[in-house]
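Dear colleague,

Following up on yesterday's call, I've attached the two folding results inline so they're easy to grep. Please treat them as preliminary; we haven't cross-checked anything against experimental data yet. The first protein's sequence and structure tokens come first.
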Amino acid sequence: MKKLVIEPTKERIVAQSGLAIVGNLLNQMHLASRLNTYRLPDISRNPVCSNGDVAKSYIGLLCQGKSDYDNIETFREDAFFALALDFQRVPSSPTLRQRLDQAALTEKWKAILHEESLNLIRNTNAEISPVYAKDNPG
């Protein structure tokens, strides 16, 4: 991944700039490489977009408050999106939908996502605090 320098500025900052931090955190994980080693049923042996690129793309969408698969089309030609999240190819909306639908049916993907999330929390010494619903104090 190219090194991104974060420094103070008086210039206008675009909303997407936080993706660089997300990309940095994703690169501290083994998420993409672990997902790439797992072959999903009904997906060709050499898909155009790797499982890691699909996962990072969707994480990038979620970090911007977008959960609809079709929102990925906005970022297919966006060089910063791919640079910040450090992947080769942004998947199309149908690829994203099909791959994640397949992944949702496998316990292995769920296990990898849980393990890598936990490892990231541990490795960054993130402070965890509870969140309570308004009507349920705990």
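Below is the second protein, in the same order (sequence, then structure):
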Amino acid sequence: MINNHIVSEKHLYSQSPGNIVSDMDGEKVMLSVQKGKYYNLGELGGEIWDLMKESVTIQELVTTLQSQYDVAQTECEEQVTDFINQLLEQGLVKIKDEINS
């Protein structure tokens, strides 16, 4: 498990393998086979999860979400960063690479 990891705009994030995800009434729920735990990602969390099928940066996530929702950039960045931190702590996403600035 990754503890106290700092999400960075210089990293690419993607889904960790070994999770079973399903849609339930517009929300995504996930079973971590490795941990034997269920997670409710919710509607927005499910969208973020789908966007992380391929490696993606925080900024790419924020840009996509802002094109779909009326949300300020700062608030969106904070919410996305917090969500990814939670997923990292549970081992549900992985850091793929560091991108070159």
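For the second protein, one point worth flagging: The mean pLDDT is 88.

Best wishes,
A.L.
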